[in-house]
Amino acid sequence: MKTIFNKIILMILISSIPNLSAHDLQSAVNSEDRDPKNAARDSSRHPMETLSFFEIKSDMTIIELSPGGGWYTEILANFLHEPGNLIAAHFDPNSERAYFKRSRANFEKKMSANSMFDNVQMSAINSNLAKPNSVDAVLTFRNLHNWLGAEMDLIFSNSYKALKPGGIFGVVEHRAKPGTSMDVMKKSGYVTEEHAIEIARKHGFELVAKSEINANPKDTKNYPGGVWTLPPNLRLKDLDREKYLEIGESDRMTLLFKKPLES
After folding, report:
1. What DSSP string describes 44-111?
2. Which residues contact 43 (CB under 8 A, 6 or more apart)?
């Protein structure tokens, strides 16, 4: 009788812990805590397959670089649990650019609105990110085009320093055609795989694998408004809207790097 009573108490305690079922990745992706508008993009962004490819585990300490409005943050925060935690390296709250300050403030407001985000720490993208050799993975989703030049060098360098030996550096980015010039990359929002790999290797990373999880062969990459012509931005508003919706989100590279065990 005592054994049965103890089991009942245990079941009650387990059922009362929020998000416990979300400690497996599929449950985190399927979580009702996610914004429905974000979840609607799963068929284009393949979060389950992408995070699995990046070898992400629930007990990791992870830095998400420039998380924007928190599309992946919702999944990662739901998935990670002790001793794992998430560091969101957002814009500098003391930036002189109003957009950066506003974006950071909106993100912090979102983080404070749901206990799911209690394990999310904040950092600044232009900082050291974390203590040296302290994190298991650094992830970035569709950000490289914003950093082309010295900023990309700084962020890659700081990411390398923050990672433990053997740590993961996962990159998803709009993929330019081979041979695309730097000027066109900056204007179009597409970056070549060659450039991403070159900068990563420059700062010590080893390329482990590539994936076509986020490829889109319909993407011709030659639009008047650059990559932002496609959804979800639809920069041209109603002009050829159905055409761009049919193409879908951009063709993307998905690259897995690691910091060497001996570095």
Report:
1. HH-HHHHHHHTT--TT-EEEEES-TTTHHHHHHHHH--TT-EEEEEE--TT-S-HHHHHHHHHHHHHH
2. none
* pLDDT at 85 > cutoff 50: yes
% of the chain exceeding 70 in pLDDT? 91
Cα dihedral 125, 126, 130, 133 sign: positive
Please state, in angstroms and rounded to a whole number, the distance separating the CA atoms of residues 13 and 43: 35
Reported pTM: 0.91
CA 203 to chain centre: 20
Residues 6+ apart with CB under 8 A from 237: none
| CA quadruple 10, 12, 17, 20: dihedral sign | positive
Q: Scanning the structure block, which residue is given the tokens 């904040």? A: 122
What share of the chain in percent tops pLDDT 90? 89
Specify the pLDDT at position 263. 63
Given a contact cutoff of 8 angstroms between Cβ atoms, the answer to whether 32 and 78 are in contact is: no
- Residue range 106-145, pLDDT digits in tens: 999 999 999 999 989 999 999 999 999 999 999 999 999 9
Q: Which two tokens stand for residue 86?
A: 């998430």
- What is the band of 262 on the pLDDT scale with cuts at 50, 70, 90? confident
What residue segments make up the domains of the chain, in order of their start? Answer: 43-258
Superfamily of domain 43-258: Vaccinia Virus protein VP39 (3.40.50.150)
